[in-house]
Amino acid sequence: ALEYVDEAVTDLFNRLDKRVTPVPTIFTETFRSLSECRNTGEGRFIGCAHLLLVWVHSHFWKVDKVSY
Q: In what residue span(s) does the DUF7745 domain sit (predicted)?
């Protein structure tokens, strides 16, 4: 279901090696939820879209002085 992470998922990450991070899973679930809201035309994203955008920019747009 949307809007929460199942306890089984959090338990899985607790049992895995500490080098494994749940961030991609949470990001994917958020993206899937946003897509579902858009496709159905119903509901709305319950969360902070601005905070999500800040997080995405801080993790995916790290480019060091690229010369074009």
A: 3-62
pLDDT of 63 reads 60
In a domain, 2, yes or no: no
Per-residue CA distances from 4 to 1, 46, 62 (Å): 7, 11, 29
Is residue 16 domain-resident? yes
Question: pLDDT tens-digit profile of 46-57?
Answer: 666 777 777 777
33 three-class SS: helix
Instruction: Give me the domain span that covers residue 13.
Output: 7-60
Is the pTM higher than 0.70? The answer reads no
